[in-house]
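Shift notes (night). Ran non-specific serine/threonine protein kinase while the centrifuge was going.
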Amino acid sequence: MFQVQSEIRTMKLLNHPNIVRIHEVLGTKTKIYIVMEYVSGGQLLDKMTYANKLNEREARKLFQQLIDAVDYCHNKGVYHRDLKPENLLLDSKGNLKVSDFGLSALKKPDNVLNTRCGSPCYVAPELLVSKGYDGAASDVWSCGVILFELLAGFLPFDDPNLMSLYHKICRAEYICAPWFSQSQKTLIAKILEPRPGKRITISNIIEDEWFQTDYKPACAYEFDPTVNMDDDSAAFNSIEQKTTKSKISKSSSFINAFELIAMFQDLDLSALFEEQDHKKQTRRFGSQHTIIETIEKIEAAATHARLSVEKMNNFKIKLHPKQTMTRYSRSYFDLSAKVTEVAPTHCVVEISKSAGDLRMYNEFCESLSSLLKQKSRVSSEGEDLVDQCDAGGIEKQDAEL
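Came back to this:
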C-alpha cells in the first residue's frame, strides 16, 4: 500500500510530455482508482521484439526523449531506478512515455541512496556493492543499456548465470555490434563507464554531437492546478478509516444476459471477447465450456507450450517455463490466466504477459484459442443424443400418420 501511495505522489510531481501522467485519484471504502494518461502504443519492448533493432534515426529519437524525461525527473529530485524497455511506453505517434515509478526515490540531502533495486540486466555496477550510490548516475547507466539495445537488438550484458552477469556489468564487458558507428561507440562507452564518478552526466549527453542530430528538446508542461495533490491522501484515508467486510449479496432470481444467450447452445460467444491486436499484453477469449473444462484447456495449451501450471485462488493460473530459466533473461516466458464464468457453460479467459517474447506469447494464445473453440466431449455426445431423439420422434410421427 505504501509503495502504491509513494508512486502516486511521485508521478504527481511530474508533468512532462514524455512521462505518463496521473490525472486523478479516487477512493471508495475498499478500492482505489487511478485515472492515468492513456498510452495506446504499448511497451517499447514489444516494438523491439518485432523490429529486433531500430534504425539509427528512430533509436536516436527515442533515446533523446528518454534523456529529456530522465533529466526532467532529476531536476525535480526524482530518480526512477528501474528504467528498462518494459517501463517505457509508446503513444499513437510513436513518442516515448516513461512509466512505472514504483521503485523511484526522492533526492536526499546527501544525494546518496542505499536501497538496491532495479532489473539485473539494466542495473548499474555501483548498485551491486553494499555502498551508497548516486541515483542520477545509476539512471544514466540504465539509459545507456537501453540505447545499446535499441541500436543492436540485443543487450550489452546478458548471461543465464546471475553471478556471471554481475561480473560482466561490474567490468563493463560488452561487445558492440559491427554496425555501430564510431560516434555511437564513443557515447555508449562514456555512459557504460563502471566508475560512477567518471560516468558521463545527462547534461554532457545532451551536448554530445551524435545526440544533437535532429534534436528537438521537449518542453515540460506548466503545472496543472486542476490536479489535486491531496487526492491520493483522501483516497488512502478512505480505505484505512472506512474499510469493512463486504457483504455477499444474494443471487438475483433473474437470469442475466449471458445466461439467456447460453440457452442457445450453438451461439459462439468468442467474438464478443476475442481481441485481434496481437501486440497487446493482455488478450481475451470466449469459451463455450464450463469453468473446470476451460481450465483444463488452458492446462493442455500450457503442456503443449512446455509451460508449468501453478493454480492460484479465484480461478487464476500462473504459467512458467518448465526448463531452468532465470527471470532476468530476455528469453524468459511468464504468463497469467484468469477465468471468469459468465454463464454455466460460457467463460471469458484473460491471458496476460508479464515477461517474455511476444511471438511466443501470440503462439500460445493462438493454440489456446483453437482449443477453446473445440466442443467438449460431453457436449458433442449430448448433441448426438438429441439428434437421435429428434430423428426418432420424426419417425414416430410418420408412423402415426
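Confidence is low (pLDDT under 50) at residues 242-255, 260-267, 393-401. The chain has 14 helices and eleven strands.
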